[in-house]
What does this fold into?
Amino acid sequence: LIMAQTTLNIYVSDQIFNYALRLLGTFVGALVGMVCWYIGSGHGNGSPYGMGASVAVFLLPLIFCRIFSPPQYLQGVVMSGATFTLVVGYSWLDEHIAVIGNVGKGWSVAWRRWVLVMIGCLASFVIMMLPPTSGRKAVRLRNASTISSLSYIYSHLMASWISDLRAGSDEKDHIQGHDWRVKFRGLICEAGEQLQALRAQTAIARWEGNIRGVWPKEDYERLVNVQAEMVGSLALVSVCSVGSRDKD
It folds into this structure.
């Protein structure tokens, strides 16, 4: 149930990317956990000294990846660490504590963990397909929205600049002229944040399948780059307008 809820996403491309990360992370974590357990315990029930040395060696790269991994791959890294902990921890508990349910050790714990993750992913996949929401359509709509926002920012800049020049040269009008610059700065920052999110969504949208042909990922990335250049150009124009106004 937890795995099904945590793998749900709004768009199909995001969910498929999430599946790939979580399944790969679970596989790596189960593999590393089994290697750690069998190196530290061999065919026995787990020596505290051997397991301590083995866990210390394998835990260092897991912690390093957890701290320094890129945010877009963090889910897979967390799944690797959680699966590693479950495999080693349940194996140790099963061999040293009397419990009602015998989960086994090493491989027995690893394959159960893998099956549970697969069941959760399958359940969320069924929910996602009723009905599916295209991530590529969302990319197109967000591109249209950001382009519309850029046109509004440009018109706002030109109108404010012209009205600022016509306002007069006295100090009162000069102070009031700074109001549009504060609003313009907020619009520029908002557009930059939208483009940053759009860039990440465009990269993930390639995971979504399409029966109509290959999705032109490079064209959409180029479109996002052009919009980012437009934001930078508008910001420079506003700086030039402020400088020319201050000189006057």
In short: The CA atoms of residues 103 and 229 lie 57 Å apart. Confidence is low (pLDDT under 50) at residues 169-176. The radius of gyration is 27 Å.
